[in-house]
Amino acid sequence: PNLRCFRYHSFKEGKDLEYLRSILAACHNLTELELGIMRKSISSSPVTRGSIYLPNLTSLCLLMSNRSGSRYFLDILTCPSLRELTFCVQGTEELEVEEDDRAILEPRRIREVLIRSSKNPLPLETLRLGGRGAHEIGPEYTAGLKDLLSILRNLKILDLRMFALTRAALEMLTIPADGPLDSQLCPSLSEIGRGDMRAGEGSEIEEES
Known about the structure:
Layout: E1 5-10, H1 18-25, E2 32-37, E3 52-53, E4 59-64, H2 67-76, E5 77-78, E6 84-89, H3 107-117, E7 126-131, H4 141-149, E8 157-162, H5 167-172, E9 191-193
Parallel strand pairs: 1-2, 2-4, 3-5, 4-6, 6-7, 7-8, 8-9
């Protein structure tokens, strides 16, 4: 119960996620959590059984290849003190994940987590999103990203990696010379990063189709 930091990476097929849920439910004092679920599939469809409340968690990192797994954790975690969030999709092609169950970037689901976890103003200061392929960017990514950023008044660092860095994303963060400042997304933003998910991979800005 006094555990402060928990990092877990799983590549083994056949396990469901309930065992991991039971571990997290007992770790109320976590301040840092990193979960990497790199599997072709989840052995059974996970069932959400109430949220897991982590009142002291300030840093959350989710690295996912499977959509049912990523949605599972986004649905159960409640983190009112969260200041740093990383969500990256990776391994969907290498693991040959079925197309309809590949993890994708869904900013609106992240928005739901943050709203559920804390009242305005939200404390989140750093947001990192990443996807290695165009197929890992959801069809409503741009609109969802704008909805997400619109509630992050305290966000200071935004890091969009690989295909998460689209031209549309940059345009929505650009303030026209004659535009009103009160319409600015993320008024506290001081840094926009374009970090690669792995050194040496391309970092071209791609337009959404």
